[in-house]
Amino acid sequence: QVRLVESGGGLVQAGGSLRLSCTASGSIRSIRTMGWYRQAPGKQRELVATSMTSGGTTNYADSVKGRFTVSRDNAKNTVYLQMDSLKPEDTGVYYCNVQGSQYFHDPFDSWGQGTQVTVSS
Question: Is beta strand 92-100 parallel, antiparallel or unpaired with respect to 31-39?
């Protein structure tokens, strides 16, 4: 079982910044992707940003492009989300997601508990 722990959420004024961290631990053979999703009250969970281990390919939701940056520290099994120019609509619970690799016969899909991000107008 792969466990994820997020941190870095909090309250910030619009235009401010926050940096989220997520560290994976447990039974890990290889990580294929690491990323972030978020869920606002009454809304569906949505993809924010992901990073593939192979090639370093990143993917961002259109709503956060140019404002958020996902990065990795592979030695620490940690993924970060630097959030700049935050907007009230960025408010929600942010969940870390880590996926294993089918190549290593371990296609796990793990989620963190979530960390609250609140952006005031």
Answer: antiparallel
